[in-house]
Amino acid sequence: xxxxxLYDAKLKALSVFYREVRRIRGEGNCFYxxxxxxxxxxxxxxxxxxxxxxxxxxxxxxxDPESAQWEKRIFDITxxxxxxxxxxxxxxxxxxxxxxxNRFIDVTRGLCRGYAxxxxxxxxxxxxxxxxxxxxxxxxRLIASAYMRGKEEDFGIIAIGMGYDSLPAFCDxxxxxxxxxxxxxxxMALTGALGIAVKVEYLDDVAYPWSSRCGPHRHVIRPLxxxxxxxxxxxxxxxxxxxxxHYDLLxxxxxxxxxxxxxxxxxxxxxxxxxxxxTQACSSCYDTHLAGCWLC
Length: 296
Description:
Number of helices: 10
Structural class: alpha+beta
Strand content: 5-15%
Helix content: 40-55%
Mean pLDDT: 81
Number of strands: 5
Order of helices and strands: HEHHHHHHHHEEHEE
């Protein structure tokens, strides 16, 4: 169709930096599931390379999930979220957060142990245990909601702009509710709660004024505090592919590639050379320019 060249250019740009796209089931949790699985892949990559392979200390949330520093950071994040819920009078969510924290730790470690025992097949097998993984995703939703409630000056106007009477009403319907889709506000809240970033590559039929063959628009979503500060900011924990209404997981070829953290924007993709002419004619109309004619 009319967008074929544009999609070809965007896919070509993605293939330079990513070795694989992992399809994520579309049940409303696709962003949270993509982010979580990408985060696990990043931790496993760090574990395989070892601490000596990096020049700087590893971020606590990108360390081995069996380690004490990883577990302590999860506890700290949960404690901050509890304080936000307590200040908002949401005692039921405060209690649920404690339960979901333990589930998140157990399931995350279970997936990593599956990889240690059976390699990638073991990781993917455990990732397909929907009931267990959904319980782990609940923690991500709750900490994002707690972060929003504690930053009403930043997120309150967004809730009103989206037609809700208050920020708690928005959080209840669009963050805490299972299967509610994640948009940029929810992603910003999650990265803020965790203190790590996520890279989103947009695959759609939108071209840019300077080129109809541009690559995908890329956007690194960081915590609000990091966006306002100078420096490199927090590390990217996961890379996801957004197509309108759905997220999938992207697996980088090399997490050390500087281009992964290059500024937001688009990349010019040179046009691909024309495909060679087919060696056989269409068997129906005998057109020598078409190997298989869709009209026939």
